[in-house]
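Researcher: Good morning. I'm working through a list of sequences from a screen, and I'd like to move beyond sequence-only analysis. For each chain I'm collecting a predicted structure so we can compare shapes side by side. This is the next one on the list. No need for commentary yet; just the structure.
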Amino acid sequence: MLKNKIYKYLWNEIFKSFITILLTFTAIAWVVRAVNFLDLMVEDGYSASIYINYSLLNISTIMTRFVPLAFLLSLIFSIIKFEKQQEFLILWTSGIVKTKIVNVFLLVALVVASFQLVLGVFVNPYLLDKSRFMLKNNEGLQINSVLKSNEFIDSFKSITFYIDKKSPNNELLNIFIKDVGKNLNLISEEANVTKNSTIIAEKGIVTNGKLVLFNGIIQTLNKKNEIKNIQFKKNELSLDGLTIRTITQPKIQETSTMSLFKCLYVPKNNLNLSKCSVKNYRGEVVQNLSRRFGPAFYIPLISVIVSFLLIYKKEKKFNFLKKYLLFSLSFLILVFAEIILKYTGFFQVIVVSYFILPLIVFTFFYIYLIKKISYEKKI
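Model: Good morning. Structure tokens for this chain:
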């Protein structure tokens, strides 16, 4: 009963440290990322609510990147804390076997690895796809925030705006619009089959999803290369056809894990995935799947390496340096895993090595650690 309480105490302390470090790293990185996302409002014209929701939906992706490092730091800090408070000494003198403590660390590592897998395999693709879907909704666009005075604005596909001035009440003065993609619903039937259109107006205002223009001219170039001019005193242009230049098609990291596996193993003619047949897409799929599954394989390995801190030497100097040596070794393994991950999409042998290597090294270190603990008991 007492031993169970001790194991539970160790478990809780490590997890508290892990959650604290993980949330701290995630918060810092998220703030930096959120600053980069400001372009959604400033350049692309999305509302503040979409910006905030889009930023929040990216938190899990940021968190996933820090899970292995946060676990490494939490385990080392917890062991150092237990040593300073003489808690390990109390455990050894009370008959607790070091192997049991190693297994507690390993159990924590397996739970953290499972957490990493859930985030990478299921949560991240779902939330990223949801965030991309938000950008497809033009209802969140704030056209007035995109249109700036004395600048050519090409934030929308196949259309360019130029506004000479903006009055304090958001009235647009001296407007120039170049539409080469039939994005605006013009008043002329000829404009519906035109190659491109140019609109010049003295002033205008955006209201109720429409751009209302006053005192201007519409110049159209049809398929016969004939130019026609239409003058108007007032004209309303629907903005529903505008498409933001922000990428709205799902990226590979936003595609569900099941779809990526289908892209690899199901015959292409049985799929409704347009990118599956694209050259080099298979390599990108393999790399992305490796990123979702692979890092979790290195977390148990880290726990075994750090567990060597439980073995003491008579020379205190060596015990002091061992903390830094084991941290450096673990950190280099994580860096190596991140580097090799970038090449998993090129060669199959690299993919196999990326997943098999941590299992082999883990087995070697675990057996060696158990032998060291057994030898320490005999001395």
